[in-house]
């Protein structure tokens, strides 16, 4: 049973609560915390705090009540603590004195050079990062440095513990509560940063677990502080521009390890022990923790070997079970010296082994020695902590103890963790009774925050709900809000699994109040709405009213944030000049020849030729009507040239004119034109156009061949016909003489359609490049309708030597010269 049970408040605090407030929890010191402690005649755990612009009343029954800070209740700037208060605070930050016989505390060996360098850098105002593996003696070195740096800074020396902290906000709150005398007050972030900026102290931060941007934020918030950061090599390193000096701790030398071992044993080493120590130094790389544990092994061996020293002169009796020649306990092996936890635990008392089982169940956290009698069931179990500390199985972390590095894993392999579930359930039920006791102050609960959280994580859902319900108001009253949030989230999850709707509503209400105090409005609204819904289902009127009041404050804060005018920037002077670059392409429609049935859209001007870039229309500059915000983005519209080649042709003649031009186009005048934007996919468009032109060409050739074969039943003459633009009577055909050098005869060609009219300025008899004048057909359209019988035509007399053309029948429509050449190549009647 705990010694605090059945005693008065003062006696309970002296017996079970000798642990001072934890510096990492942000609570006030013991003298200032008396005002916040509940009286025996008043309600338990009802504490009133000031959180920024709110007044928070922690109510463990219906939920915390929050309201705006009343006018005139604002506190002034708190005063800093004087030298006497700082000394009391520093004394309270040390580990408590342990009952029972303590082991020999080893002195600092082989660290004189590192100690001088750290003191010299801190005296210059530089921040130092002390990096060393677990068990390298970082905490012992920090104690030696703290003794020499107490009077360097105007605000003295501040010792903090960074174990379990990943964000700098809680460390800043702790630093503020340590330097300033402001009990029951937790300022908001802006006010906190303004106050810690004026702190000038030497801060020793042990067991630091954060780095990178988080560490940079901590250093920027306190520019007048010089930090000594003790961390392990696996912790994230600071940024390059943080200007932090690096000091690395390596293993001790062989001679220093031998001196450390002799100091731990209390006698000189024998030759065999010296040789064993040399092998251990090589295996452990000079880690001081291994030699503290090795000293404990040698002390236990001495005790076991000298137990019968007083009875050496007496002859053992007949019925004495002790052997006549007791065997000497040999030196531990090298493997036992490198991993000595199992061997050391087997030689300690039963209460100490039970404490080790509890520590394994709580993730390495050892409860305060005042709780061990109730947890172990032995009234003298509080002396087990000193016994384990002398063996090197424990290490101090702030104002508490936990298992040393590697000990938890070695004990679990030795079956010390088989009863972890039962031990965690026992610890959770014990802490649920202890945290809800009226004599226990919130500061004492905050001192056991890590052990309470570990018990909460390993307990069953029923014990976890009960523990979270009683510990949450204590953490809120002690201003250890990081632990408060973790307890609330764990309790809400456990209540959901256990089906406790009322408790789940309480936890969500507290989470909403915490988020409102920290300025997280979205999270506060979500949590409070969930709590109001659950309490409405339970018809809890008082809880619903408390939730709606808190939700009204959230709505008011959201309205204030939304009513604040956004940041607006004036339009830049170069906006008008930049707007002239905004151009949009003018859609141009291809000119359709007269007589075509394709619908056309009216154009302002004719489309440019195919080989000329399209002109883009310039848009008037856009002048902003109102002020342009910072979110305005000036977008540039790319100018895409619209040419004729990008539009698909609709008639067969246009396909041939685009693919095979009859005459070269005149060169464009050399006038300065805006360069069109390059086509993003020119190759693809060209391939598509060529493929379409080829497909239409194949269709056109097939149509021409079909018309040529089916237009007349007569066999076409051997020579190519002559084309006439005027109808004439059909004469008697004559067969001219053909020489061997004459070209092959051409098949009859059809007349040109009406759409293929002669272009202005071009003669009908103008020779086509690549052909003789005698073979150039006429460009004038035929007057015969397409469906009328084919008229006869008489060709003009030839102008060159060769066979004279004779009048023959012509097929309608007459193809162009290119078509005639293609048809001649494809005609089966062409011959030599």
Structure description:
It contains 28 helices and 16 strands. The strands form five sheets. It has a five-stranded parallel sheet with strand order 5-7-8-4-9, with helices on both faces. A four-stranded mixed sheet has the order 3-2-1-6. The chain is an alpha/beta fold and about 850 residues long. About 35% of the residues are buried. The chain is globular and about 130 Å long. Helix content is about 40%, strand content about 5%.
N-end to C-end Cα span: 127 Å
- State Rg: 50 Å
Helical segment tally? 28
What's the mean pLDDT score?
73
What is the general shape? globular
Task: Compile the SSE list and pairings.
Layout: H1 9-16, E1 47-51, E2 54-58, E3 65-68, H2 83-92, H3 112-123, E4 128-131, H4 138-148, E5 157-161, H5 168-179, E6 185-186, H6 189-196, E7 202-208, H7 213-221, E8 226-231, E9 245-248, H8 254-265, H9 271-284, H10 288-305, H11 334-338, H12 341-346, H13 350-361, E10 365-366, H14 372-376, H15 384-390, E11 394-397, E12 400-403, H16 407-413, H17 420-435, H18 442-447, H19 449-458, H20 461-477, H21 481-498, H22 501-517, H23 521-537, H24 541-563, H25 575-579, E13 583-584, E14 617-618, H26 652-659, H27 682-710, E15 792-793, E16 808-809, H28 817-826
Parallel strand pairs: 1-6, 4-8, 4-9, 5-7, 7-8
Antiparallel strand pairs: 1-2, 2-3, 10-12, 11-12, 13-14, 15-16
Helix pairs in contact: 5-6, 5-7, 8-9, 8-10, 13-15, 13-17, 17-19, 17-20, 19-20, 19-21, 20-21, 21-22, 22-23, 22-24, 23-24, 26-27
